[in-house]
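Colleagues,

For the teaching module next term, I've prepared a clean inverse folding example: a structure given as tokens, and then the sequence designed for it. I'd like students to try predicting residues themselves before seeing the answer, so please don't circulate the second half yet.
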């Protein structure tokens, strides 16, 4: 097994995210067309309720194990490294199994009383098996990440995404075709008489959604099996000679206590972060109903096509979460990899009190994060409608609902993309409870502004995006300040934040200008998707050129990033 440094590990994880997100779009886009706004409402609602449960069991596992593994490896306690993995597997597998049973038992209650959509019950039941599989997968990933080997995480993520695409879409299509066949043969669908094929498909949506979610769960099972087999074949790089140097290990009870004590605060912080979606689920539907009650003509253009006034709030939520939030989540997922890849190096620097290494690692993490986050967020705002049409062409009503919120969410893209690695770094240097407090305050801000803004007819669903920007601004500023203060270091704000922001403004303006010029002067035969790709290409060139001119990434630093082997 070959250990990687921060930059190489980041490159591996970034490449993985690009591949998995591309494959994820191949899954999500056809699924959105199949389920439409209503079905995506079931899909998003089930995951909004499930994600906090999943987070409290799974979220703290990888970083906790990675941190403990890296610290023990730094002190050459190799036998203890192996024992940490065994104890973690036993502890978290049991918790995952119990959580899965709990979700299944409470699925009917959650769908009726929390989601307030009884049809979401099948999606909740289908997602439960993913929890125990995810705990196994997270233990394995965290172990190898702590050993500075990001390949098992990257490859298992790709395997998981491929099978999610195959199983998720495959199962959904099978149920859809079954519903159509039943309608043609009997005039009914799942025991209910239907007047038209559209009505039959509409009644089948809960089952189609459940089938898609079941495919997602099975993909997690496949990935966990893969990473276990791969680990047995390739090993972990710890030889018998290394194990013989120090055979002492901590007591099992002590390791269980340490695992739980470290994982629990991280899990709570993750739960609070995921509660954003749950807060949207709880507040958006009811607040949209209030806005519609205050303005009887609000969203009138959406009625028809099997949509009644009572169904519109779920349609709005499904469109916002399935389109706008899906695009919004792409960039923070990328930058989260920097927090993951820096964890082993940061842990070693922290436990050995190497201030120079600590300053260098955190500075590079922040710089690379802003270089990616600023142009992505600004570009999202400048091309919100075009991005949605590129991905979801034909979903006119869903795009109309999501266009303005996505434009607003461009600012939140920047803020959350910077926040996630900072919170991970805080946890790595031992400030486990601080991210919990920061996230809790941010969640409270989000809920308050949701309740204030969304019921206003003039604001409606845009209020959810505005509240996301405000809450992320609070979290981001607090997280950066807390990280630098806790680590006892200073950074150049001009180089890390101001210069990349200026370059990103030029990038976004280039994208908008190129798209408008190409659209006006190129022949109509040229597909608009090609125009968007060319506009983004020229924007990237402008961004890189601007960074070079501003000396954010000067020539000698670029060379060092490319050729440096052990960082």
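(Answer key — instructors only)
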């Amino acid at each position: 097994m070959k250990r990687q440094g921060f930059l190489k590990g980041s490159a591996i994880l970034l490449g993985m995210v690009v591949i998995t997100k591309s494959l994820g779009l191949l899954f999500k886009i056809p699924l959105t067309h199949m389920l439409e706004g209503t079905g995506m409402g079931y899909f998003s609602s089930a995951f909004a309720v499930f994600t906090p449960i999943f987070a409290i069991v799974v979220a703290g596992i990888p970083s906790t194990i990675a941190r403990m593994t890296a610290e023990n490896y730094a002190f050459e306690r190799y036998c203890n490294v192996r024992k940490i993995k065994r104890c973690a597997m036993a502890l978290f597998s049991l918790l995952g199994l119990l959580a899965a049973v709990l979700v299944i038992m409470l699925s009917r209650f959650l769908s009726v009383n929390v989601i307030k959509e009884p049809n979401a019950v099948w999606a909740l039941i289908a997602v439960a098996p993913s929890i125990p599989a995810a705990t196994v997968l997270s233990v394995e990933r965290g172990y190898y990440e702590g050993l500075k080997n990001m390949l098992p995480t990257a490859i298992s993520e790709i395997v998981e995404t491929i099978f999610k695409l195959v199983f998720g879409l495959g199962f959904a299509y099978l149920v859809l075709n079954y519903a159509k066949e039943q309608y043609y043969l009997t005039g009914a669908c799942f025991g209910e008489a239907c007047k038209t094929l559209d009505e039959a498909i509409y009644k089948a949506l809960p089952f189609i959604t459940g089938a898609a979610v079941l495919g997602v769960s099975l993909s997690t099972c496949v990935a966990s099996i893969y990473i276990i087999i791969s680990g047995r074949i390739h090993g972990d790089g710890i030889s018998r000679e290394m194990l013989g140097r120090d055979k002492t290990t901590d007591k099992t009870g002590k390791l269980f206590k340490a695992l739980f004590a470290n994982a629990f605060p991280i899990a709570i912080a993750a739960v609070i972060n995921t509660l954003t979606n749950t807060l949207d689920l709880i507040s958006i539907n009811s607040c949209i109903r209030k806005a519609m009650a205050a303005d009887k003509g609000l969203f009138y253009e959406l009625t028809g096509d099997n949509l009644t006034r009572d169904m519109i709030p779920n349609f709005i939520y499904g469109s916002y979460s399935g389109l706008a939030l899906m695009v919004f989540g792409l960039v923070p997922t990328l930058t989260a990899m920097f927090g993951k890849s820096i964890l082993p190096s940061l842990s070693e620097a922290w436990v050995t009190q190497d201030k120079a290494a600590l300053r260098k690692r955190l500075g590079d993490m922040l710089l690379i994060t802003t270089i990616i986050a600023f142009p992505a967020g600004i570009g999202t705002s400048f091309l919100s409608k075009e991005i949605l049409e590129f991905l979801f062409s034909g979903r006119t009503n869903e795009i109309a609902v999501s266009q303005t919120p996505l434009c607003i969410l461009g600012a939140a893209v920047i803020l959350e993309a910077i926040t996630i690695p900072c919170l991970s770094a805080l946890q790595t240097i031992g400030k486990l409870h601080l991210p919990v407090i920061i996230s809790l305050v941010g969640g409270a801000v989000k809920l308050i502004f949701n309740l204030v803004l969304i019921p206003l007819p003039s604001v409606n669903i845009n209020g959810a995006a505005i509240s996301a920007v405000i809450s992320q601004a609070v979290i981001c500023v607090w997280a950066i300040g807390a990280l630098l203060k806790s680590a006892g270091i200073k950074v150049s704000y001009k180089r890390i934040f101001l210069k990349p922001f200026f370059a990103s403004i030029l990038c976004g303006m280039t994208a908008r200008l190129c798209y408008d010029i190409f659209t006006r002067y190129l022949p109509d035969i040229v597909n608009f998707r090609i125009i968007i790709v060319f506009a983004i290409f020229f924007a990237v060139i402008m961004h890189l050129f601007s960074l070079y001119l501003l000396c954010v990434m000067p020539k000698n630093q670029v060379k060092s990033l490319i050729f440096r082997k052990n960082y």
